[in-house]
Amino acid sequence: MNFNFFDLFWVFLAISSLQPLLQKYQVGARRVQALKQFEQQRNSRVILLIHRQESLSLLGIPLSRYITIEDSEQILRAVRLTPPDVPIDLILHTPGGLVLATEQIARALIRHPAKVTVFVPHYAMSGGTMLALAADEIVMDANAVLGPVDPQLGNFPAASILKVVDQKNVDRIGDEMLIMADLSRKAIQQVQRFVRTLLMDDVPTQKIAPEKVESIIEALTTGQVTHDYPITVEEATSLGLPVSAGLPRSIYDLMELYPQAQGGKPSVQYIPMPYAPLRPTLPEPKGRPLPESNAKVEGIG
User: Fold this and answer.
1) Partners of 48 in the beta sheet?
2) In which element (H, E) is residue 69 found?
3) pLDDT digits over 276-292, tens only?
4) Which residues of 173-185 are buried (b: 16+ CB within 10 A; e: fewer)?
5) Mapping DSSP to helix (H, G, I), strand (E, B) and coil, where does residue 140 land?
6) Facing residues of 71 across strands?
């Protein structure tokens, strides 16, 4: 059988088109295998909520990945399928998202009778922090962060809108700003009431000391810091949250299977291997070295 150039071209095109599908299948199989191994190690139900591609652009329109209603539907289904006596491990990597979806997931987590543990390998901001508050234990990487859960109205923090209204004479405030202030007050009250529900959860055990609840609510919901303020492990612990540092190696391996999509050359690059603490030294020169005071490079000095 003779092959001409066009036959080879079509074979190459067919292989090229199938290669991404095969790679996707292989990565999917590795993810499932990694999840099964982690579940066997922990004897738990493992749920991932990972939002990569935090900033994208399509035809000039910025897009973002965040907690959506579709996420809440999937997680609520996973929680329903989990037996009451099986712990849940939720691995979080998210900038936050819709309040409705976040509250649905958080309520499902606190209603689960067995222990719920949230793992944060990098960050869980805003709504992600609210999901962490629903857990009985929060396990973070030593450099991972949480964030405030103060409500935002459009591009403005609700607390800042209220501060503007308090500082100005009501006769100099427009009707739209007064309406936003009323919505801001309601939003803060609603978030505080829900966070209090999460912190007062005592199933299977009381996770927050009762005397710490109100101070945590004050710190997280009243806009004392900016909405992107990073709450470190040390600060979260000082607030009284059930936080511990030190993730299992398997979680880092699992995160490697959810890489950030690369649109071009990578912005970070390194050799993924440990370096030996001692490196071989170069041999000493056999000739007598020149004194430093007399050593000159031609054209310099």
Assistant:
1) 91
2) helix 69-80
3) 655 555 555 555 554 54
4) eeeeeeebbeebe
5) strand
6) none
